[in-house]
Design brief:
Two copies of one chain form a homodimer. With about 350 residues, the first copy, chain A, is α/β, with parallel strands linked by helices. Chain A has two domains: about 180 residues, Rossmann fold (3-Layer(aba) Sandwich), CATH 3.40.50.720; about 150 residues, Dihydrodipicolinate Reductase, domain 2 (2-Layer Sandwich). Chain A is built from 13 helices and 13 strands. In chain A, the strands form two sheets. In chain A, strands 4-3-2-1-5-6-7 form a seven-stranded mixed β-sheet, with helices on both faces. In chain A, strands 9-11-10-8-12-13 form a six-stranded mixed β-sheet. The radius of gyration of chain A is 21 Å and the shape is globular. At the A-B interface, helix 1, helix 7, strand 13 and helix 13 of A face helix 1, helix 7, strand 13 and helix 13 of B.
Chain lengths: ~350, ~350
């Protein structure tokens, strides 16, 4: 299968994915009969370039990495904006990787809808649209007979959505719980070793795990978005951000951490949701004191983990990275491989 | 897609799979466009029944559960042996679930080769053939343009082979390590709580985890077979049983367990293999003292776990059941769903 892709947004994740397809092109062709060609790149800051016969992505990547405008690319059509790139190029697959706004989902939401309604597949690591309207977007994709993949919105490249909807499908999944935010897990790991919250946060910022304003991580907002996505997609239940009880880790003291350790327990920020007997959903993000016998208790540092409750297998847990340029870029590849098999049926 | 299946062997796993397809038929049709019909069942002890128009599996299951001969089924053709059932029925997919012999692989090996060479798909939870000749059987399947799935040979229904070859594909997997045997993990968990090896083994036997002769589990032979399968299939390297260094858990004393616990460590029977710089493979089954920070250290009771070393994501770990009637039956369903997408490309 030949895939013609257009990038909408060309930041670190898009660049990570470009590196992967440049390095692994022949492997993808051989293993999965996938030939990937990039025909367009449009970025609000870096500019835009389109060549229906395919771009030389080594050149494009080099421009982006050297902070040069994409219009320096020697050939092709310049200056097309996001929506023109989505609707007026010969791309059949749009990689939507603009910045995330989980409150409005914009501008990504508009981009994705435009692409799906134009009969184009969409692969995206953008949390905003998935948090706001995952179910609607999946339905729009289905109606237009195209694919919408957003694996990277949950655990970056560690399979969560594809694991549930493909590899574990056949199970009824009735709930999940997980360590869905790496920054807070890193901070809690350091605190158990005796480091103060403030120092641990500073270290997380130095390592690039936490942003200058850490509210999204430490108050549980990032984990909350993932709970919403998983509930809508994996549990098949409507849930919006305001339906989730939320508590971050800022209220956890060194004494709390020590006390838990003395009793063979460990604090983790857990995002969870479970279908209730009346078929409603109870969802929360909150610090929980786990016994060390819980597989999630053994997940330390910035690592993420997710346990699905299944009817056939009982709890099944996946543990892996939850962030990173290559890791998140890789999520787009998982989606593309899955797309390949889903649409050829 | 319509699938006509024949069971060769009709023990607990086959019955577990029958229950699953009886209960989940409409879900499989809706989610994956899979319509499954059983046309034949042949078992060396229970007898054999064939109806090209499809068997009433509720009746067949009831006969098997009540220890009645399958020939009591009211209609159809009786008395076909395994090879006749494989080659002379209208089944397009053979479920090979006869007893396992990891030394010779027989009679399953003969069954599987006959099926693949007759242009029939094979789904099997039988370790013997996979340990002996996984690579050859996969090649035979490829040549005949059919599918050979054997997910259940590693962690029962917890996805291991499908996780690696599908959901994580795009990664280069350079090694793995895992808790591949539930019985020994159960015994080590009890020993850490202070129970003697002998008592823990007896308890494992009472619970049905360990057999009357526990050698296969406690001496690491079962785990060894899984290391061989994973190395051949996931690492793509030839390895036979005699290439693996093996040590069981019988040499681990209460003192060893206590000593590890005092130092924040925990004994686990670890099966592992890693591709070396000269591209050879180093593989072993051996008790290892893991630090509690290792995700595998937090996996207790009869639960299994497997960590893949990947180039894009680093270590990715899956944790779930490694045995059980429904769980292993479910592995056949994972394979069938994967088969559906693979062959329709």
């Amino acid at each position: 299968m030949n895939v013609n892709i257009a990038f909408v947004g060309y930041g670190t994740v898009a660049q990570g994915f470009t590196e992967i397809i440049l390095e692994k092109g022949s492997q993808l062709k051989e293993q999965h009969d996938l030939s990937i060609q990039v025909v367009a790149v449009s970025d609000i800051k870096k500019g835009s370039i389109y060549d229906e016969k395919g771009l030389n992505m080594k050149k494009v990547l080099s421009l982006a990495k050297n902070n040069k405008p994409l219009e320096d690319y020697p050939e092709g059509i310049k200056g097309m904006n996001s929506l023109e790139t989505i609707t007026k190029t010969n791309a059949d697959t749009i990689i939507e990787v603009t910045y995330t706004d989980v409150k409005t989902g914009e501008p990504a939401l508009t981009h994705i809808k435009a692409a799906l309604n134009a009969g184009k597949h969409v692969l995206s690591t953008n949390k905003g649209p998935a948090v706001k309207q995952a179910a609607l977007l999946l339905e729009t994709a289905r109606k237009n007979n195209v694919y919408y993949g957003f694996e990277g919105t949950v655990l970056s490249g560690t399979p969560a959505l594809n694991l549930a909807s493909y590899t574990l499908s056949g199970n009824k999944i009735t709930g999940f719980k997980g360590i869905l935010n790496g920054t807070t897990n890193y901070i809690l790991t350091r605190m158990e070793e005796g480091m103060s919250y403030e120092k641990a946060l500073k270290k997380a910022q130095e390592l690039g795990y936490a942003e200058a304003d850490p509210t999204g991580d430490v108050e549980g907002l990032d984990a909350l978005g993932k709970v919403v996505i998983l509930t809508n997609v994996v549990l098949g239940k409507e849930l919006s951000r305001t339906d989730v009880k939320r508590k971050g880790i800022t209220g956890i003291s060194m004494d709390d951490v020590k006390h838990a350790k003395e009793h063979g327990k460990r604090w983790k920020l857990i995002g969870r949701a479970e279908i209730q007997k009346d078929s409603s959903v109870l969802a929360s993000v909150s610090p929980e004191k786990l016994p060390l016998s819980d597989p999630l208790a053994g997940v330390n540092e910035a690592v993420n983990a997710l346990t699905f409750m299944t009817d056939e297998l009982g709890p099944v847990t996946i543990i892996g990275p939850g962030a990173g340029k290559r890791e998140t870029g890789f999520a787009l590849l998982i989606d593309m491989i899955n797309m390949k098999y889903q649409i050829s049926r």
